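FAQ: What does the model actually see?

It sees only this:
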Amino acid sequence: MGLKTFKGGVHPYDGKELSKEKPIKELKPQGELVYPLSQHIGAPATPVVSVGDTVLRGQKIADAGGFVSAPIFSAVSGTVKAIEPRRVAVGDMVNSIIIESDGKFLETGFEACNDYTSLSSDEIIKKIQDAGIVGMGGAGFPTHVKLTPNNPEKIEYIIANCAECEPYLTSDYRSMIEEPEKLIEGMKIILQLFPNAKGLLGIEDNKSDVIESLTRLTKHEKRIEVVPLMTKYPQGGERQLIYACTGRSINSKMLPADAGCIVDNVATINAIYTAIVEGKPVMDRIFTLTGDAVMEPRNYRICIGMTCKDIVEQAGGFVREPKKLISGGPMMGFAIFSLDIPTTKTSGALLCFSQDEVSKFETTACINCGRCVEACPEKLVPSRLSKFTEYGDKESFEAWYGLECIECGSCSFACPARKPLAQSIKTMKKQILADKRKKK
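And it is asked to produce this:
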């Protein structure tokens, strides 16, 4: 039987060899840490500390601003230096709590659980909510909301997104190599919430060692199955992963739960394990620092709130001056102009390149070759949608299913004319969705 996959997609150079073979290294922050109050989908968190307060590692510094929100915890002990707007990776100024670390890492108490099987579903959900867990693969959707669908008995699959299809990123890979028990036990905790569900670990076949390891570790787990996937971008996209693993399709008007599925990233499932078993909230994460401009490309365990500048300096700095900095992966990340931005719960990587290859591209006219159509995992016609954007034709853009675009960037990558198709489509999507919000 062939490897499971979806139709479309591309095969960019993956660049993973720069960091994948090196063990995770722990970094301790120097100086101040910055905690934006909006680092998740939903209402911003509300500060529960004031300037001048002393805090401990693991102490709540901001409470959830509503049901679709999440609390924030300090990863260090120290003093609240300020509460003020700071710039984040997407360029926005976001109100943030700034904490000056005292370097002592004095902790508040954590309540471990020796037997999570004795916990009720409500107790598990409450612990996940109280720990501030959100989708740590980049989406940032509060996990306690995702794990409380309207009809939990209809959930048939819990899918762990182990694909890590973005080029250069290897944090999930290293996590699965070094601490696979967290993923497996985290999956078992989620399955405890859904008695009719089966756990699927969807892993691309460029991680054969992980497939072998997790298959061996789950051979006696009747409710968990390893699903080898074809290595292709965007195999880790939520819709693509669901289709590859189950054959079920969803669109922009549906949730995965509508297809009987729930999808969580490796880092999110690990955070669930840490919250339930160790009693610790979200304070740290595994972070990929890589690129040809970096002295020591590898994965680091960082304290959330560390600035990119602090991470780079502690990792040995640059071997050459970078001309391109990307927060996240090269396909769906954000180019940044400064390292003075904080890491958040959803920050997975910083890419530093000595050359800005994209800026050298010269855009030419569309030749109607259809390569963008072949690459699109949503079966759209990106060249046509881009043209609608160019003429401001929102009606035609919607009629041609432009809102179904997942903004993966496959069309831009495949285009021989080097047209910024994905960026153009993303711009029109934002305008249309903003118009719809105004009409509500």
